Amino acid sequence: MPKTNAPTKKSDSDGPAKPGGDLGKDAFLKLLVTQLKYQDPSNPMDNREFLAQTAQFTTVEKLNDLAETQQSLLSAQLQLGASALIGKTVSYTDTENKVHSGIVSAAKFFTGAPPTLRVGDADVALASVTEIGTPAPAATSPAAQSPTAQSPTAQSPTAQTPPVPAPQAPAPTQNGQRPGQPASS
User: Fold this and answer.
1) Which of 20, 29, 86, 138 has a CA-to-CA distance to 144 between 20 and 30 Å?
2) What is the pLDDT of residues 44-72, one digit of tens each?
3) DSSP secondary structure letters along 48-90
């Protein structure tokens, strides 16, 4: 977008004032209309120059929209990644460059900021995570692991189903032969 050294008044829809005198879209359109309004009638603005300016404006506006969309997608991806770490063991480096590890119990999301993970008593930035693993299985006694020590409700559904009987041969027919056998002569 064109730059100017003159201070520009920003409208509410134009967002906050930008450093360096960048013109927002409303200010750019006002400047373009003013330029057309006060042009010299004996030497009007060239159509190609006018079309080039509007094309540049449209391109910059679409690039800004694309950047906003990509930022939203990145934020959603970070939130999804942080959510997937709940229940996992992570290692992370703190502000003093010490490595810690623990199980992620929660993920926190803030508008305009990257997500943080709750590991033990610490809130850890997602970018500080250096390693991800699955939590170690809980230690149990050998008696609790044997199938006979489990209660009937704790057994798997396959352990509760009765065995299937083996298929039996079909009964002989009236002439003494089994179905599917050739007749004897």
Assistant:
1) 86
2) 777 788 788 888 888 988 999 999 999 99
3) HHHHHHHHHHHHHHHHHHHHHHHHHHHHHHHHHHHHHTTTSEE
